[in-house]
Amino acid sequence: MITISLCMIVKNEEDVIARCLESVKGIADEIIIIDTGSTDDTKKIVSRFTKKVYDFKWVDDFAKARNFAFKKATKEYILWLDADDVFLEGDRKKFKKLKKELNPSVDSVSMFYNLAMDEHGNPVTRLRRNRLVKRSRNFRWIGPVHEFLEVGGHIEMSDIAVTHASIHHDSDRNLRIYENRLKQGEEFSPRDTYYFANELKDHGLFERAIEYYEKFLAGGQGWIEDNISACGKLSDCYHETGDHEKMTVSILRSFTYGVPRPEFCCRLAYTFFEKGDYPAAIHWYKQALDNGVPADTWGIYNHAYSGYIPHLQLCVCYDRLGDHETAYRHNELAGAIRPDSKQYLYNKNYFQQLEELKKEGGES
């Protein structure tokens, strides 16, 4: 059985750190905590789980802090988490099984990262990340912010998931880091350009975000998943600035990177829906159902776009066209995915009322 060092960087995480560390019991043989300046009870809480707590002076560089943590590890493999991440019980069991059975020739194990869950606890938005890596390979973190772990060799794809359960975060921190780097005259990499655009968009700075998304895509050097994502975010920015023509062009731009993704089929469908062109909207919502998401993608994807959303929208489209039978069928298909959805239940009640009116009309 392999041995595992858990390496984390933390700051003021008293609300979540115990929950995270409780979830790795039976998984981590060693817990290494790098504190970057906590002023709350984080260190006190962490001391209940490990004595290996080290201070690191924060220099606006996440990669440096994570690499410092990795250097402290002594076990065969390194697991990394953020303080607001957890392993749910089912994933804990899978991980403990993996720990017993993992072939030592494996250099890295990728795991799902659940970013959002529905009301039943099922993942809605997720991606993949290299989560468990062989220490002897000396893999390094790269990038001051939105850092990534540069990994190669024998990578095993697992179905284990880390679940992100954030309570709060410093929403301005990353933007501040990027702005300071710009002031210092730093030339951004394609990855930095993309993530800087994301920060600008998230802060409502849509014109500047458009500038950097366009620069990122024009460079042609980005990861394909970031390229596709940038098209969607760029479309959102053009929508916010009222340029609906460029919004649609940005949606179509995503098609140049491969089979149209469900999200973008739904986006395009909605442009027709807003114009009242329901047959065209129906075509693209059906494409969303047919295309699905590539099974091997490492990018962020939202399962709702390949099932729940198109079925719900097809219900509305067919209803507007007077085809209540088909509309009802699609609403039931949406309900099979999310039975407690307010939209599904509203529609269900609507169809029940239609049926009652129909019966009343027949009786009279």
Description:
Pfam families: Glycos_transf_2, TPR_8. Helices cover 48% and strands 17% of the residues. The chain is an alpha/beta fold. The radius of gyration is 24 Å and the shape is globular.
Topology order in helix (H) and strand (E) letters? EHEHEHEEHEEEEEHHHHHHHEHHH
What do we call the CATH topology of the largest domain? Answer: Spore Coat Polysaccharide Biosynthesis Protein SpsA, Chain A
Tell me the number of structural domains. Answer: 3
Largest sheet at a glance? 9 strands, mixed
Query: Could you list the spans in which at least 5 consecutive residues all have pLDDT below 50?
Result: none
How many H/I helical runs? 14
Strand count? 11
Q: Span between N and C termini?
A: 76 Å
Please tell me how large the radius of gyration is. 24 Å
CATH architecture of the largest domain: Alpha-Beta Complex
Portion of residues within helices: 40-55%
Strand content of the residues, in percent?
Answer: 15-25%
Tell me the overall shape. globular
Quaternary state, please?
single chain
Mind telling me the CATH class of the largest domain? Alpha Beta
By helix and strand content, what is the structural category?
Answer: alpha/beta
CATH superfamily of the largest domain: Spore Coat Polysaccharide Biosynthesis Protein SpsA, Chain A
Average pLDDT score = 95
